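2 proteins. here.
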Amino acid sequence: MRKIKIECRFKPSLANIFKKEIEDLGFDTSKLVTDEDVLHSYCSYSHRLLEKRSRIIHKADTFVCPDEVKDGLAWLESKIEKGESINPHLNTAIQKDKLDGLLYDWGIHHLHLGLKYESTGFVERTGLVLFAVFRTNDVYFVDIRDHEGWSDKGLLEIINRNWPELLATYRMKDIKPETTFSEDEITSLRKAGVNTFHELSDGNSYLSMGGGITTAGTSQEAVRIYIEIMRLLWDIEKQIRANSKYLVSHVKPKGHPFRNRNHFVFVCKRNGDRIGFYDVVNNNYWQNYWQLATLKERFGL
């Protein structure tokens, strides 16, 4: 029996799929030169963007909405409750996937409270912005502030006082920081890709609720998503290679014979809301697939 040759070209084919999806959102891909660039950018957007889903709104005990943005907040709340896309309220810097230290470090999004869409597709910018923490089925309104306080530990104090369960996972037992960082220092450390932990008024110290920042200025959470994707692709490749003899002797492409029983070239191929693993030589899909909607279907803009 001739030796079976199996090629799995998953990363480049998946990068092609994801690059198109990023472009379909209207985002800039001009600096995404390599497959790795695309894949990491995709993972960053998966972390930064907010899925379209209805969420229960919770407000901090000190939460007050200034009159000038009350209508804008009401519009945003209506979208949240209906499960509409609220990503147009995010910072336009997301189009180029620029550093968001507040999100990467403390897991807090900031959203603009305008009353109409601009030509860019984003909501008009406002001086006052909403600081909020998003979870799958809930959103926690922390505060409304001007464009300041991005590194104010007071935001963490509000979260800990109102919803201590959000920070519980990141609590460090019997460990205290040797120094206390000012807002300016926290901002500078974020830009340098240095992660810190902070002691709050309850006497406990907490790690980064947002997962942290890499030395490259990217999101640690995005790196985690990337690793998960690589593991998935590696697992699929191992399955294919481990079952190569079965593939040759039992699996028959639907409606046509094998073109080559000894050579298989698998790539990632989108098919609706799933990613399939497709043999381009024999025009056949591997039995397993990855259930994954497109970026536009998940997040919208």
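next one coming up
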Amino acid sequence: MNKKILLFTTIGKLSEESQSHVNASFQSWKDYGLDILVFGETFHKDLCSKFDAILDTSVEKSEFGIPLVRSLFVKALQYEGYDLFCYINSDIIFNKDPRPLLELIDYKSFMAVGQRLDVWDWPKNSKEEIHNPGGIDYFFMTKDFRDWSDMPDFSIARGRFDHWIMGKALDSGKAVVDLTKVFLPVHPEPKNRISANPDIQYANGMVKLGYQQFRNMNIFLDLQCHGQTNMTPFIMTKKGLEKRTEIPLNEFKHQFKYDYEKF
């Protein structure tokens, strides 16, 4: 039986390029019968109506008007009638239905993540490259996976919050699955990618953006909670769910160890 899944994301003001990417991603999610929740602004009403998406404008924001990741997770999980929830970046295009894979995860409480395929000159795709395990663009999870209200004030799209989420997930004592070998959604690379390095933003006069990136980084470094997709206890393969045999140290030289009998 197909699980009922709510994808939740957030968008701001969209350029012509980002609009095309978001349209493609939303269409792909809709094509696979997945419900969409958008944390946005009233001017996103037409876009949400086009894809039968729920528009929620009540998200908590920083003093710069940027949504706080904690608020996205906490508010999304309050929606009723869903078996799974998934935070996803708004420009991630599904090229495969994830539900048959998620059905294979026979744990009451779990999270499923994975890498993405970066493509240049989308949709011509002049170049393709699998993104590194540290860039995490989607998190499928059961409602009871953990209480996210303890998440610090990470701003969305300012870096490092995904590493904190993974670190907490891997320390949760619950099953976390890497889908990369069997599920690789597409990410169109923007023509002008914004650097995640706050020093570069400061050097270019982008003081507010640089400060926000620096603040996310500072929170992350202070808490020293880091995880990546290649550190999960399980991987999904064509044969099904398998235990990961090699787990690298995280950024702070921590080795995740798992008690598989307790999942």
